[in-house]
């Protein structure tokens, strides 16, 4: 990883006098005309010791409260610029983060740590009532709380809690209706040991955590994104920080970062995870030539509000003295400016149910299928593979009703027959096809046997039914080979006849067949989706005749995983775009018009997390009863959250897909 730094204004060592001096901000980051910052001490009108303080993005209410303070003695206070208390909540608090809501009614959401209860407290100030509302508390964590920060997206509010010895957690604490009566644990997260300071960029959905004596790290804040951390600014010799990283405040261009031990305050800009620049530093030492000089103890906290042409800063030192500074807002040179990509907003749909997690940890759940009961749709089943154990059968509420431990099954598909229905799954233990009989009335699955194949690493599988009671299995290998077998079950014995073989250039997995149109859709993981003729032809044309449906690119991002057909009044192909945790819907007939892309997010009301890193999926247009009158989509969830757990499958009403993508009725 190539981390670039630009260091300006010198990086001298601090002197024992511990005086903060401010270098003039320049319009281009390092060069330009010097300006004189204004600076003065600031304190609440009553002599309360300050534990932490945050500037609001703008004043709220008629009283003009523009900063929130916590104190061990005075509690939680909303103050105006002159330090007068606008609203006060008694208690003993430390650590603080805030968010301001202006859309429907002016209110301030606050998270702080209640020292007496040793719990994180959540509370709202409503400007219309000019008072703090009844507080809520997060259940006590299993670790001592060292820091916290809020995160908001899509009318949801989360809190990140930092603990001792690298422990941390993310909790869902509010939805569009306000604070949840019972906050929900979303996930455990590993944080740098000793970390006390964090901030979240809500717009970019990035979590920033300071590691003392090391530097600042950036993590994805969204719980469904793979956890990776990237260095932002590091201690020398790996970066240009003098001693390490402590409190930080985010700005539109990057952040302000305190190095408390060295007494330095840095202005850092960033364009992406790998390119950050230390643009300026303010150092702790005495300089007689400076235009502004502030005598303060070791700085502990920093808060920033961006105004039209200025930055307003509050610095808090370890003597609990606050300093207010007003500086010209720096102008980022055009060479460093980034233009928003302008990508369309991807709808986020909510699951209505989820299955019980699979029993095995790690990468286990893989591919689902849906069995529709012929006379009682409510008795339909969701079938899923556990690629560490076998086949799982669930009811529509997600309860496990059957487990068939027949081996490491990867993908599954099923079809219907006159006397019984049939399901097949790729068995990676035996490089065979596991065959199951499904009873019409009960939906009971019975393992009939194994159909051997000539494949060396069987992977994906799908069924083709060219006529009633005729089933053909298409199984693929990781090397790109497909084998097509005619399947028969005679006297409870499995028989298979190889009728076709062909190959793609690279690894496939997902496949699905439109029986009526004899159309086989196959996914080549790094390339895209192809359509072939499903009918076997002993004289297979060379080269293989395949039609591109949708290639990997901006919309469909590798790996290409599960494929499924929604066959209602209109027929749609649904694809798992694993590379960006989304699902693509397009017409299943040429020219394969793109109908839209969506993601699956959490359902706060039901306590169901979203879906990500999806392998397989399945969809049906059958009316299965509320809420699945328009059909059902089932997807594998590669990251089980809220709480952390083994993988499972998520159920989404097709009506939500139809509404989210505005599909034709």
Please characterize this protein's 3D structure.
- The protein folds into two domains: 19-329, TolB, C-terminal domain (Neuraminidase); 364-595, TolB, C-terminal domain (Neuraminidase, 6 Propeller), CATH 2.120.10.30.
- Helix content is 1%, strand content 51%.
- The protein has one helix and 52 strands.
- Strands 7, 8, 9, 10 and 11 form a five-stranded antiparallel β-sheet that branches.
- The radius of gyration is 30 Å and the shape is elongated.
Looking at this protein, list some descriptive labels:
disordered N terminus, five-stranded antiparallel beta sheet, mainly beta, elongated, five-stranded mixed beta sheet, 52 strands, Neuraminidase, 665 residues, single chain
Q: Specify the biggest β-sheet.
A: 5 strands, antiparallel
- What value does the Rg take, in angstroms? 30 Å
Number of strands: 52
The CATH architecture category of the largest domain equals 6 Propeller
Indicate the topology.
Layout: E1 19-21, E2 38-42, E3 52-60, E4 65-71, E5 75-79, E6 85-89, E7 93-101, E8 107-114, E9 119-126, E10 131-132, E11 136-137, E12 145-153, E13 156-163, E14 167-175, E15 178-190, E16 198-201, E17 206-211, E18 215-220, E19 230-234, E20 248-250, E21 254-259, E22 264-272, E23 275-282, E24 293-295, E25 299-306, E26 310-317, E27 322-328, E28 348-349, E29 353-354, E30 365-371, E31 381-386, E32 390-394, E33 400-404, E34 409-415, E35 421-427, E36 432-438, E37 445-452, E38 458-467, E39 470-477, E40 481-490, E41 493-503, E42 508-514, E43 519-524, E44 528-533, E45 547-551, E46 560-567, E47 571-577, E48 582-587, E49 594-600, E50 617-620, E51 632-637, E52 648-653, H1 654-661
Parallel strand pairs: 28-49
Antiparallel strand pairs: 1-24, 2-27, 3-4, 4-5, 5-6, 7-8, 8-9, 9-10, 9-11, 12-13, 13-14, 14-15, 16-17, 17-18, 18-19, 20-21, 21-22, 22-23, 25-26, 26-27, 29-52, 30-31, 31-32, 32-33, 34-35, 35-36, 36-37, 38-39, 39-40, 40-41, 42-43, 43-44, 44-45, 46-47, 47-48, 48-49, 50-51, 51-52
């Amino acid at each position: 990883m190539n981390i670039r730094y630009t260091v300006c204004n010198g990086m001298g060592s601090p002197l024992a006098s511990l005086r903060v001096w401010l270098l003039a901000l320049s319009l281009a980051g390092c060069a330009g005309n010097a300006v004189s910052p204004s600076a003065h001490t600031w304190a609440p009108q009553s002599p309360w010791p300050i534990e932490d303080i945050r500037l609001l993005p703008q004043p709220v209410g008629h009283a003009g409260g523009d900063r929130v303070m916590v104190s061990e003695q005075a509690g939680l206070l909303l103050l105006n610029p002159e330090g007068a208390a606008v609203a006060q909540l008694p208690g003993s608090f430390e650590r603080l983060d805030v968010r301001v809501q202006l859309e429907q009614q002016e209110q301030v959401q606050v998270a702080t740590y209640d020292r007496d209860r040793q719990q994180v407290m959540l509370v709202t100030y409503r400007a219309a009532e000019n008072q703090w509302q009844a507080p809520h508390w997060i259940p006590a964590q299993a670790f001592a709380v060292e820091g916290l920060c809020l995160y908001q997206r899509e009318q949801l509010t989360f809190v990140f809690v930092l603990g001792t010895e690298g422990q941390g957690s993310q909790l869902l604490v509010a939805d569009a209706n306000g604070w949840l009566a019972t906050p929900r644990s979303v996930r455990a997260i590993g944080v740098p040991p000793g970390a006390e300071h964090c901030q979240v960029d809500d717009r970019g959905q990035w979590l920033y955590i300071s590691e003392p004596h090391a530097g600042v790290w950036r993590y994805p804040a969204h719980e469904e994104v793979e956890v990776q951390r990237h260095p932002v600014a590091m201690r020398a010799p790996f970066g240009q920080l003098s001693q390490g990283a402590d409190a930080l405040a985010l700005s539109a261009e990057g952040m302000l970062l305190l190095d408390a031990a060295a007494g330095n305050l840095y202005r850092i800009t960033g364009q992406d995870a790998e390119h950050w620049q230390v643009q300026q530093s303010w150092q702790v030492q005495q300089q007689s030539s400076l235009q502004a000089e502030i005598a303060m103890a070791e700085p502990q906290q920093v808060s920033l509000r961006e105004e039209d042409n200025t930055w307003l800063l509050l610095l808090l030192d370890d003597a609990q003295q606050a300093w207010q500074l007003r500086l010209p807002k720096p102008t980022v040179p055009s060479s460093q400016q980034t233009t928003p990509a302008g990508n369309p907003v991807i709808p986020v749909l909510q699951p209505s149910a989820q299955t019980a997690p699979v029993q095995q940890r790690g990468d286990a759940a893989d591919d689902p299928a849906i069995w529709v009961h012929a006379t009682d749709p409510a008795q339909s089943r969701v079938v899923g593979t556990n690629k560490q154990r076998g086949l799982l059968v669930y009811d529509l509420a997600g309860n496990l009703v059957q487990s068939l431990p027949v081996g490491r099954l990867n993908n599954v598909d099923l079809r219907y027959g006159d006397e019984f229905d049939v399901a097949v799954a790729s068995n990676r233990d035996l490089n065979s096809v596991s065959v199951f009989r499904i009873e019409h009335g009960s939906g009971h699955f019975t393992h009939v046997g194994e159909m051997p194949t000539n494949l060396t690493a069987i992977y994906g599988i799908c069924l083709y039914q060219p006529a009633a009671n005729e089933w053909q299995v298409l199984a693929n290998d990781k090397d790109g080979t497909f084998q097509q077998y005619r399947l028969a079950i005679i006297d409870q014995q499995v028989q298979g006849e190889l009728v076709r073989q062909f190959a793609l250039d690279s690894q496939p997995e997902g496949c699905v067949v439109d029986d009526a149109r004899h159309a086989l859709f196959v996914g080549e993981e790094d390339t895209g989706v192809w359509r072939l003729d499903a009918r076997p032809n002993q004289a297979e044309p060379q080269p293989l005749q395949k039609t591109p449906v949708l290639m990997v690119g901006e919309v469909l991002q590798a790996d290409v995983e599960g494929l499924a057909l929604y066959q209602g009044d209109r027929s749609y192909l649904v694809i798992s775009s694993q590379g960006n945790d989304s699902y693509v819907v397009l017409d299943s007939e040429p020219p394969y018009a793109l109908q839209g892309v969506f993601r699956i997010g959490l359902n706060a009301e039901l306590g169901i997390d979203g879906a990500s890193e999806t392998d397989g999926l399945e969809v049906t247009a059958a009316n299965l009863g509320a809420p699945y009158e328009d059909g059902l989509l089932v997807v594998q969830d590669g990251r089980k959250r809220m709480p952390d757990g083994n993988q499972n499958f998520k159920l989404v009403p097709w009506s939500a897909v139809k509404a989210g993508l505005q599909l034709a009725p």
